[in-house]
């Protein structure tokens, strides 16, 4: 299936098109592992659009207003890596958002210490497989109790394969 091209020329227009795409995904049979890629206008504006999408989908505190039909998410996570550091930093942000146990979070410190000792630069640090397993398990549990949406703001110049992160 070819990706949908978002032709909006304003932030509000792009937000509406992303929300429409989410609604279509919710109605289709490909509900699991669906990905929408939004690059902005040569990279510009992507952060603003992604933040606005997250705000539109997150209920306001104390509000009983329902989300738009087909866009009800039990959990919404906004993983902002617009200031890119490394795949491990992105994995750490995901783990923090999922509120993984201290024992899992300590794995980052141990691996970072080891990498510091071995002289591995911060930008060259890859994800930790054991943490990826924990993230995957947590996401599976969340999805048993509803739908989750992850909004990733990727500041790297590379496409990120999210499966290695968990």
Automatic annotation (TrEMBL):
This is Uncharacterized protein. It comes from Eleusine coracana subsp. coracana. The lineage of its organism: Eukaryota, Viridiplantae, Streptophyta, Embryophyta, Tracheophyta. The gene is gb16723.
């Amino acid at each position: 299936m070819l990706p949908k091209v978002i032709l909006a020329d304003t932030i509000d227009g792009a937000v509406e098109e992303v929300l429409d795409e989410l609604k279509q995904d919710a109605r289709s049979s490909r509900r699991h592992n669906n990905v929408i890629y939004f690059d902005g206008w040569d990279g510009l504006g992507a952060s603003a659009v992604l933040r606005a999408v997250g705000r539109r989908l997150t209920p306001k505190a104390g509000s009983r207003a329902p989300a738009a039909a087909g866009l009800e998410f039990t959990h919404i996570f906004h993983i902002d890596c617009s200031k890119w550091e490394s795949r491990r930093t992105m994995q750490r942000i995901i783990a923090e958002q999922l509120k993984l146990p201290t024992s899992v979070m300590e794995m980052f410190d141990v691996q970072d210490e080891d990498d510091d000792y071995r002289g591995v630069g911060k930008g060259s640090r890859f994800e930790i497989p054991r943490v990826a397993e924990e993230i995957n398990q947590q996401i599976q549990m969340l999805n048993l109790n509803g739908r989750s949406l992850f909004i990733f703001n990727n500041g790297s110049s590379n496409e990120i394969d999210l499966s290695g992160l968990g």
